[in-house]
Design the sequence.
């Protein structure tokens, strides 16, 4: 009744092809951005910002990065955790070499290092596909993680073998290090994630996105219509690793505050992969849905027994959270194998004709 | 759609309501970061039980500390840094008087925050060795000994009282390949060069804790005269089993203080003679532990299995809680307040003085050697002893051995300076000092 485009006429081709063709969608997006940029920082406590929103945004960004590669180009990667690590270590090295340069510059620049490494490990993708490529990227995961643990140069020879995040300011306000307030860090992460999600969305809706999708659907056919496979696949690896690398730098600098090589282990790669599978392959908004299920829901589940006053031990809550999360993932995938993004689309379709479906 | 919105609204309400948990005014909040799940749960559970039971016993027997009840709260970290930070954020609004991270990774993340949030960190014999220097790390405490102290103590006792005794020998180092196991390497290498022994490194990646066969092939080939182990979680029982399988002589195998009774017992008869460092008593023959049995475990206020009481790691949990309780008691003494804050407890932890008489008063006579902290020394660099597994229990196999301060101290100073330098803007200490 409220969600329909009756009376909204498109007069230009651009308007017709817009990502959000319906006015209500644009308002919805504006509302979400308003809540994210104004309401949450104003009313949210440090727990909401530090533990829920910042990790949620970082994981969403990493999932967007992996989605560009796996969801849009069809190249399965298990090396996401390691590429995040490359971004984090690159950012650490750059920030300690040139502490006078703004930290945001280095967070974005570290994405380029990650992109270069991604392209290197993406080279086999021209010859191998599917599970075989997954194994090749798995090798990247193990090799890079081994490297993080083996090269003390990467952590400036710290005895702890861990990245120790330096203090940095932006316009005189601390953004990294312990004195940065949760609100500042949240706003920085949110801004970067919003910009990169917007860029990613534009890429996948444009020429490059179509090339990637053509490669995904049938690479021989794509080759026959004149798409250069090598370029397309390597570009996918580069853009994906760039995004993932920035997410890794954000993770260490604005969320964890210090990181051992173990922080970038295979579990992180799997977590990001599960986010895009649950959220929906080949969907930007799906990355956010998936991160909600994989990150926010377990936190809510953990907090639930204490809120309603159930005396359960911490360890048992943890076990229950594991089980319930696992069951919910299976339920979601049975209900909609294409992920939450498809569920969202179906819901929108139904809502357009509601309440008179015929 | 509607249900989705409702769910989202509920989640948001939940999130906003979380920090609003008001604490009772007349209690002291002590969160314990524990891990009873995951690959490190085998080591984490007895420690969690020991820490919890001693504090619960104080509540039952004495009504808390100085008449103030303790609110003891467990948060499950699974030894995962991200979950540890989540725990930290969830306990922070409740004004904890200190945190016990029980993971080197979590400790490293929390060290910079401690001075900003005014919450002291008690990382008992783990974490960053350099944080023993109270003039640079006023908020971090790692008594009673650092990993560097431990290494020099192991090498001293293996060299027959002096590290020089190892000259010309081959020393193997089997370690957990993360911050904790890697930290002693600089000291190890420096000593190898100074003294002239041959050092062989056998790193065990966290993912391969239970798959060490290739390392043991190397060890069999190299035949080290001494094998030092720094392991944790599932790595310890696996290493001991592999050693038995490889028929590695147990009298040449010695570990830092983390293996538990169950880790050794799992390897069967062959593990007889395995040695570790320790600094506190084992077994349940202490009045305070008898009180725990009576008031907490028998009263059904704990989930500790009876057999676990008195094991190395259970007693280590108890020792950790003794430090917590003493820190709080000292804080009450110094400030004259009953309900103390993190700021006060920091001062309390700086003035710990646990001598034999104090241990006796606590009902733990002969439980551990003396411990004394000052503003500059947050560690006390206590002596440890070697204990040996006789097939069923630990037997003390040597006298107390102190660290090789001459070799360790310069490294510690250098590391602490380097940390402060690398973290530009590291605050210069201006916290109160009560024992100049």
Sequence:
């Amino acid at each position: 009744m409220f969600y329909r485009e009756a009376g909204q006429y498109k007069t230009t081709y651009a308007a017709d092809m817009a990502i959000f063709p319906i006015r209500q969608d644009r308002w919805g997006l504006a509302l979400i951005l308003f809540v994210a940029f104004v309401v949450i920082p104003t009313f949210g406590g440090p727990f909401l910002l530090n533990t829920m929103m910042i990790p949620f945004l970082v994981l969403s960004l990493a999932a967007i990065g992996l989605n560009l590669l796996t969801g849009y180009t069809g190249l399965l990667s298990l090396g996401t955790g390691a590429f995040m690590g490359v971004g984090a270590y690159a950012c650490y090295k750059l920030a300690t070499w040139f502490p006078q340069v703004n930290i945001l510059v280095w967070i974005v620049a570290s994405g380029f290092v990650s992109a270069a490494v991604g392209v290197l490990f993406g080279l086999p993708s021209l010859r191998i596909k599917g599970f075989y490529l997954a194994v090749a990227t798995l090798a990247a995961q193990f090799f890079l993680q081994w490297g993080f643990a083996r090269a003390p140069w990467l952590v400036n020879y710290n005895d702890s073998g861990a990245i120790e995040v330096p203090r940095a300011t932006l316009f005189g306000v601390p953004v990294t290090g312990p004195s940065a307030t949760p609100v500042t860090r949240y706003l920085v992460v949110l801004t970067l994630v919003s910009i990169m999600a917007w860029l990613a969305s534009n890429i996948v809706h444009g020429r490059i996105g179509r090339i990637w999708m053509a490669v995904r659907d049938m690479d021989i056919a794509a080759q026959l219509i004149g798409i250069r496979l090598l370029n397309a696949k390597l570009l996918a690896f580069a853009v994906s690793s760039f995004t993932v690398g920035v997410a890794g730098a954000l993770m260490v600098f604005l969320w964890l505050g210090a990181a051992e090589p173990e922080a970038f282990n295979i579990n992180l790669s799997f977590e990001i992969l599960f986010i895009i599978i649950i959220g929906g392959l080949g969907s930007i908004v799906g990355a956010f849905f998936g991160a909600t299920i994989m990150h926010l829901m377990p936190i809510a589940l953990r907090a639930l027994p204490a809120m309603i006053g159930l005396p359960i031990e911490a360890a048992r809550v943890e076990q229950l959270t594991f089980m319930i999360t696992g069951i919910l993932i299976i339920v979601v995938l049975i209900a909609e194998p294409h992920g939450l993004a498809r569920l969202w689309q179906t819901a929108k379709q139904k809502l357009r004709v509601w309440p008179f479906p015929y | 759609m509607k249900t989705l919105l409702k769910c989202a609204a509920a989640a948001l309400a939940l999130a906003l309501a979380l920090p609003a948990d008001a604490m009772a005014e007349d209690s002291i909040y002590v969160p314990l970061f524990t891990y009873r799940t995951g690959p490190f749960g085998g080591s984490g559970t007895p420690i969690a039980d020991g820490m919890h039971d001693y504090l619960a016993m104080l509540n039952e027997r004495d009504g808390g500390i100085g008449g103030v009840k303790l609110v003891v709260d467990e948060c499950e970290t699974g030894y995962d840094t991200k979950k540890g930070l989540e725990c930290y954020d969830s306990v922070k609004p409740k004004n904890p008087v200190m945190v016990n991270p029980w993971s080197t990774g979590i400790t490293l993340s929390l060290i910079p925050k401690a001075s900003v949030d005014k919450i002291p960190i008690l990382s008992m014999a783990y974490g960053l060795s350099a944080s023993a220097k109270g003039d640079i790390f006023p908020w971090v405490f790692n008594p009673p000994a650092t990993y560097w102290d431990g290494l020099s103590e192991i090498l001293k006792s293996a060299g027959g009282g002096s590290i020089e005794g190892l000259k010309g020998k081959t020393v193997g180092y089997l370690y957990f390949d993360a911050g904790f196991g890697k930290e002693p390497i600089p000291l190890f290498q420096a000593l190898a060069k100074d003294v002239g022994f041959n050092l062989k490194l056998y790193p065990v990646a966290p993912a391969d804790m239970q798959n060490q066969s290739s390392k043991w092939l190397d060890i069999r080939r190299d035949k080290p005269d001494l094998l030092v182990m720094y392991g944790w979680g599932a790595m310890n029982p696996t290493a001991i089993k592999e050693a038995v399988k490889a028929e590695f002589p147990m009298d040449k195998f010695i570990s830092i203080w983390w293996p538990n009774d169950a880790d050794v017992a799992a390897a069967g008869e062959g593990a007889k003679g395995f040695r570790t460092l320790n600094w506190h008593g084992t077994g349940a023959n202490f009045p305070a532990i008898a009180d725990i049995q009576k008031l907490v475990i028998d009263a059904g206020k704990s989930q500790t299995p009876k057999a676990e009481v008195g094991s190395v790691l259970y007693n280590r949990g108890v020792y950790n809680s003794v430090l917590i309780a003493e820190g709080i008691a000292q804080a009450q003494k110094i400030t004259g307040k009953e309900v103390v804050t993190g700021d006060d407890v920091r001062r309390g932890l700086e003035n710990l003085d646990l001598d034999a008489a104090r241990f006796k008063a606590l009902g733990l006579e002969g439980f551990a050697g003396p411990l004394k902290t000052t503003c500059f020394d947050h560690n006390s660099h206590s002596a440890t002893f070697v204990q040996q597994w006789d097939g069923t229990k630990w037997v003390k196999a040597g006298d107390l051995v102190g660290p090789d301060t001459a070799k360790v101290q310069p490294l510690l100073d250098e590391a602490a300076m380097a940390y402060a330098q690398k973290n530009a803007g590291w605050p210069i200490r201006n916290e109160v000092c009560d024992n100049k």
User: Anything to note?
Assistant: The radius of gyration of chain A is 21 Å. Chain A has a mean pLDDT of 90. Chain A touches chain B through 52 residues (CB under 8 Å). Strands of chain A lie at 163-164, 168-170, 173-176, 258-259.
